[in-house]
Amino acid sequence: MAWRERLGLSATRELPASLTGALRPPRVPTGRPRATGEYMTEISTGVFAGWKPYVREPADEHREAWHDATARAIATMHNSGWLAGGIEQAVNAICGPQLALNARPDPDLFGGPQASADWARSVERRFAAWASAPFHCDLYGRQSLGQMCAQGTKQWFGTGEIVGVVRFRQREGNTHGTKIMLLPSKRIPFGARDPNAVQGIVLDADGCPVKTCFEVWDWRQPAMIDEIVVANRDEMGRPQVIHIHDSPATAIRGITPLAPALRVVRQFDQLANATLTSALIQAIFAATLESAMPSDQAFQALQSVDEQTTPSDGHPDRPAETVSDGSPFGTYLSKIVQWYQHTRLDVGQFGKVTHTFPGEALKFHTNNTPNATYRDFTRFLLREIAKCIGITYEQLTGDREGATYSSERMGGAEAWLTVLHRRRHIAGRLMQIAYEAWLEEDIETGGTPFPDGIAGFLAQRDRASAADWRGPPRPTADDLKTAKANEVKLAKGIITLEHWCAEEGLDWEDVLEQRLREQERKAELGVEDPAPATPAPGRPEGGGNTPEETFDDDERAPPN
Fold it and tell me: What is the tally of structural domains in the chain?
């Protein structure tokens, strides 16, 4: 109660109303209008008229929109080539063939950095062997951990969640019993029967998820659906439930990141379908005849002699007689028919056209679809879709017309930040859960030594299982320029070899060890390194461009 003592108050005495803000100084009339600081003042007119959204809790927003957004996103991923291809490319950039483990345990646990590094190297090799074998790591026995990571990331694009469980199933021939089992997000029911569940998740008093409800059934009796509740961690802290989403703080479930782009994808499909339909109609109906005659008689004039209908008396050499009902309109039509009996208008044989009846017109149409604005508008829609996926327009479409080195570089750099975020917080979390469960078993069974054994690991789980996850390198528009920039940064001490190798998706220790093995092997075989290439006249030593050949920012990117 030091703050009360400084104010001269006892521990039980209440603050005076003047300090709590309950009493405010009286307003003094100034004779001027009261100043306001409102935003969006034109509520009843203009662009804000009728636009009155509600502010709700993120958990409520996700609950209301989850089923519709998920169903539409999955349907779009199944039927839109643009979206499916863009997501495939985004997943490849995030996950690659498999995220590589870079174990980073606390060196204090092992008595120093060198002992910690040696332990981490051994763990990385053992984990890679388990993760690359579907029979060892997948409960279904079908996919490696890298494949499951990619599929889980695709599931996150469709549903906003990665859902699964960590099981223990020892099979004949398995090195470890730890198994990963991915599940569809709909297996967590929003209307779970457990009275303590909120949107299928049981929370503690602080709102932390402690249990998860799952719908399960026997494959032999799929109609018999049951519901079970699984603790997120067991009594020893081992992870048992995988539920990953990137949502606001109070949200309980995730939602697809494609939700803002679903309307745009739908608009693009409608535009493409309408444009194609218009083009087909214009290609089929290339000529029209404006005539007051009935359609069958008007189009009969466009036919050849052989295509004309047989006269009513059955004699092919005698033309059919025109009968008028005596009315003025009938007499008019009769005259038109008689005109075309003596005037052939043929667009089927050699394009022969003579003279039409006065007042009639034959028009030929060119294909005006798509129009001049179609390309720009479709590019605008595709850019919005690409932005929502987290890739550039050029990556989504392969269209690099008008792109420069600077635009490619800046666009790739901006998209790369999204890749890094999703790699760490989406795909990396799935890999981290699998690694933590596997490491616990490997230490307990004696495969990996640890100070104080399994008891020491359980007491220091977070410090022992700390890790980074390396993925594919960042794409570059010009590898030579990127390498030169990193070379300068390394020489100036701005980056380290570890940082540079990490950007290339490599482990710096692997690189050094491999180089050492190659040098030793070369010495054994008596192979000498080739002499460095002699720079061309006028070119600086070490290659690169002369000042006159330096690319400027407006250099066009190479074509696809």
Answer: 3
* 182: β partners: 164
C-alpha to C-alpha distance for 556 and 404, rounded to whole angstroms: 4
The token duo for 374 is 């179609």
Tokens encoding 118: 């040696």
Name the token pair of 552.
């400027």
For residues 237 and 354, state if they share a domain. no
The pair of three-digit structure tokens given for residue 415, joined into one six-digit string: 């998209």
Among residues 244, 218, 240, the alpha carbon closest in space to that of 229 is found at 240
pLDDT per residue as tens digits for the range 47-85: 777 778 888 889 999 999 999 999 999 999 998 888 999
Same domain, 220 and 133: yes
Contacts of 291 (CB under 8 A, 6+ apart): 298, 336, 357, 360
Residue pair 480/542 in contact (Cβ under 8 Å)? The answer is no
In whole angstroms, give the CA distance from residue 438 to residue 132: 13
- The confidence band for 181, taking pLDDT boundaries of 50, 70 and 90, is very high
Q: Are residues 93 and 231 in the same domain?
A: yes
CA-to-CA separations, 129 to 54, 144, 328, 434, 436, in angstroms, rounded: 52, 10, 95, 13, 15
Give the pLDDT confidence of 507-555 residue by residue, as tens digits.
777 788 888 888 888 888 888 777 665 555 555 544 444 444 443 444 4
* Helix spans in 42-176 (H): 58-79, 81-95, 113-131, 134-137, 145-159
Identify which has the larger pLDDT, 559 or 99: 99
What's the 3-state SS for 429-466?
A: HHHHHHHHHHHHHHHHCCCCCCCCHHHHHHHCHHHHCC
**Structure-model confidence comparison of residues 182 and 538, the more confident one:** 182
Q: What is the largest CA-CA distance in the chain?
A: 126
Tens-place pLDDT, residues 152-165: 999 999 999 999 99
Question: Do 488 and 447 belong together in one domain?
Answer: no
Mean pLDDT of the chain: 79
CA atoms within a 13 Å half-sphere pointing along the CA-CB vector of 140: 11
| Local structure of residue 193 (DSSP, 8 states) | S
Q: Where are the beta strands (DSSP E) in 232-376?
A: 241-244, 287-290, 361-364
CB 385 within 8 A of CB 264: yes
Please indicate, yes or no, if residue 495 is contained in any of the structural domains: yes
Helix spans in 177-318 (H): 262-284, 295-300
DSSP code of 520? H
Cβ 156 vs Cβ 426: under 8 Å: yes
3-state secondary structure of 363: strand
Give CA–CA dist 298/477, Å, rounded.
62
